[in-house]
Design goal:
Elements lengths: L7 H11 L3 E6 L6 E3 L5 E3 H13 L2 E12 L15 E5 L1 H4 L11 E8 L1
Parallel strand pairs: 1-4
Antiparallel strand pairs: 2-3, 4-6, 5-6
């Protein structure tokens, strides 16, 4: 089990270089994230999150799964648009929401991205 809490982008670059494959990747970013790399490049979840998740999904082993959750109130990434010939997207938001929070605006969206 590896944890990439400090800089997930650095983890992603490292794992891409090492050609590692994972059966499961869990990505639950903070509601808002923006950072400036040492090179001066700014990174923002709402703008760069889609490419980050697509790159992370490439690290999945055959039939691996990436779990991604985000706020329902201000979704940062349009995950359903990821469906492609190599990736299936399954919205499991309802299944993971406790009944007590079913009407809450603060619900989370939760998606499973499966490698085909």
């Amino acid at each position: 089990i590896q944890e990439a809490c400090i800089d997930p982008r650095a983890w992603l670059r490292q794992e891409e270089r090492a050609h590692h494959a994972f059966d499961l990747i869990v990505c639950i970013p903070p509601e808002w994230i923006s950072a400036r790399e040492a090179s001066g490049n700014e990174w923002e979840l709402s703008r760069d999150g889609k490419s980050f998740l697509i790159r992370a999904a490439r690290l999945l082993s055959p039939h691996g799964t990436l779990v991604y959750a985000q706020s329902n109130e201000r979704p940062a990434v349009d995950v359903p648009s990821f469906a492609s010939t190599t990736l299936d997207v399954e919205d499991v938001s309802e299944a993971v929401t406790p009944r007590d929070f079913a009407r809450s605006r603060q619900r989370m969206q939760c998606f499973l991205l499966h490698r085909k």
